[in-house]
Specification:
The protein is an alpha+beta fold and 412 residues long. Helices cover 18% and strands 39% of the residues.
C-alpha cells in the first residue's frame, strides 16, 4: 500500500482528539507493516470512532477489509468514498482480491464515472463583479443581498435593473445573511478572519452580528459575540430567536432578535465543525451540517433531543450550506468533495434513503457555499465563491477571481 498521509489540517477542529487519532493511525500502520491485518482493521475502526469521516482512515479500513477477504465490506466502503472523491485511486496491491471479482471492479468504475460526470440542473439567476468574494445570499422581494468576505461589504443587487451596489461595510469578513422580521431589515454576521483585507491577528475570530436597515443603510443593532467565533450560517425562527452556528467550536448561539442581545449558547459535544443551519416548516426543529460528521436534527425545545442522519452509501462529509425543503427533503452544498456539488437528500426517520446530484463539477474553479430556498422562487445559491484564490498567506490572487454567479433551481 502506498501510505496515505494523515491530513492534519482536517483535524484543527478536533482539539483533544488529534493526539489519540494520530497514535491509532501510527499503530495501524505498524500492524499493516507486520502483516497483522486483523489488528490493522481493528485499529482503523477505533480511529473512526474519533473521526467518523477521515478519508485516509476510511481508505485504510477498506484496504483492511480486502486484505481480510471481506470484499463486500471493502466494496461498500469504497463506493461511499467515491461519492465524496470520484478520483480515488484503487491500484494498490491491497485491493487485488477485491478487483479480481469482476462485478465489484466494474461497479466501482461505474460509480467513479457517475460521481465525476458534470451535471447542471440549475441556471444563472444573476452575477456580480469579480472584485467581490461572495459567501451568502438572501432575497427580499426583487432585491438580493449578499455578503463579501474580503472587504466586509453587504452588497445589494436589483433583479429588475440588474445593477449592484455596496449597501455598507461591517468590521470583519461578512459571512451569514438572513432576512429580518420586517421587510426593511436584514441580519449579517462578521468575523475577524485571515482572508479579510484589514485582518488584525490580535482580534482573530472576533465576531459580531448586525441588524441592518436596508432603506437608510444604517446599523440598527450590533451584537458582540464574547468568544472566538465564525458564524457561517443563521436562521430566524417564528419565536424571533436567531440560531447561529459557530465553526470555531461546535456551538449554537441563540440571539433574541427583539431585544438585540445574545441570549444563550449551547455546545453539541459530539460535533466537530458546524456549518449550515436550517429550520423545518413547524419551526420546532433545526437541521445542522457538520463539516466532518454529517447532518444532525435538533429539537429547539430540548437540544439534547437530537438525531444524526446515517447513510452507508453516500459520504455526508464537507457539507457547507444546508436547506430544508419539506419533511423528507434537504438540499446540501458539498464543497469539500471532489468534484464539488449540490445534492438533494431524501430522509426517513434518522436515515438518508436517497441522494440525487443536482449540480456537479460545474465549469468554475471557485466553490459553492450557501443558499436559500423560496417556495415560489426556487433554490438559489452562491456557485463559485473565491475561496480557492488566495495564497498561503491569505493574499488574494485577484487575477484568478471569477465573476460571482448566483444560480437557481426551479421550484421543487
Amino acid at each position: 500500500m502506498k501510505f496515505k498521509i494523515l491530513i492534519i489540517f482536517l483535524l484543527v477542529a478536533l482539539t483533544g482528539y488529534t493526539q489519540n487519532l494520530n497514535e491509532l493511525y501510527k499503530k495501524s500502520i505498524e500492524a499493516y507493516k507486520n502483516k497483522n491485518f486483523e489488528a490493522f482493521e481493528k485499529l482503523n475502526l477505533e480511529a473512526l470512532e474519533l473521526h467518523p469521516s477521515q478519508p485516509t482512515i476510511l481508505f485504510n479500513l477498506a484496504a483492511s477489509y480486502s486484505l481480510n477477504s471481506k470484499n463486500k465490506q471493502a466494496f461498500e466502503l469504497l463506493s461511499s468514498l467515491l461519492s465524496w472523491n470520484a478520483e480515488l485511486k484503487l491500484e494498490d496491491e491491497d485491493f487485488k482480491s477485491l478487483l479480481e471479482e469482476k462485478k465489484f471492479a466494474n461497479d466501482l468504475k461505474k460509480k467513479a464515472s457517475f460521481f465525476s460526470t458534470q451535471k447542471e440542473s440549475s441556471s444563472i439567476l444573476f452575477e456580480i463583479s469579480n472584485k467581490y468574494h461572495v459567501e451568502d445570499v438572501v432575497m427580499v422581494g426583487d432585491m438580493a443581498y449578499l455578503t463579501d468576505v474580503r472587504n466586509g461589504f453587504v452588497i445589494k443587487y436589483n433583479l429588475k435593473t440588474k445593477k449592484s451596489e455596496e449597501l455598507l461595510s461591517v468590521a470583519g469578513a461578512a459571512f451569514a445573511i438572513i432576512k429580518g422580521v420586517d421587510k426593511n431589515s436584514i441580519w449579517v454576521s462578521s468575523s475577524m478572519f485571515p482572508n479579510y483585507s484589514k485582518y488584525n491577528k490580535e482580534q482573530n475570530n472576533k465576531s459580531f452580528v448586525y441588524k441592518i436597515n436596508t432603506q437608510n443603510r444604517s446599523v440598527i443593532n450590533k451584537i458582540e459575540i464574547p468568544e472566538e467565533a465564525v458564524i457561517g450560517s443563521m436562521v430566524l425562527a417564528k419565536n424571533n430567536k436567531i440560531y447561529a452556528t459557530n465553526s470555531v467550536s461546535p456551538k449554537i448561539f441563540v440571539i433574541d432578535a427583539d431585544k438585540g442581545v445574545l441570549e444563550n449558547s449551547f455546545e453539541i459535544n459530539e460535533a466537530f465543525n458546524l456549518q449550515g443551519v436550517t429550520l423545518d416548516h413547524t419551526h420546532q426543529h433545526i437541521f445542522i451540517a457538520d463539516y466532518i460528521k454529517g447532518i444532525v436534527k435538533l429539537n429547539l425545545a430540548d437540544f439534547s433531543d437530537r438525531i444524526w442522519y446515517e447513510s452507508k452509501t453516500y459520504l455526508l462529509k464537507g457539507i457547507d450550506g444546508l436547506n430544508y425543503i419539506d419533511d423528507t427533503t434537504l438540499i446540501a452544498i458539498q464543497n469539500n468533495s471532489n468534484p464539488k456539488k449540490v445534492i438533494q437528500l431524501t430522509t426517513d426517520a434518522n436515515k438518508v434513503t436517497k441522494v440525487e446530484i443536482l449540480d456537479n463539477a460545474l465549469p468554475y474553479k471557485g466553490e459553492p457555499t450557501n443558499g436559500k430556498f423560496y417556495k415560489e422562487k426556487g433554490y438559489i445559491y452562491i456557485s463559485n465563491s473565491q475561496w480557492p484564490f488566495y495564497d498561503k498567506k491569505n493574499t488574494p490572487l485577484v487575477e484568478q477571481w471569477e465573476p460571482q454567479r448566483i444560480r437557481i433551481f426551479n421550484p421543487f
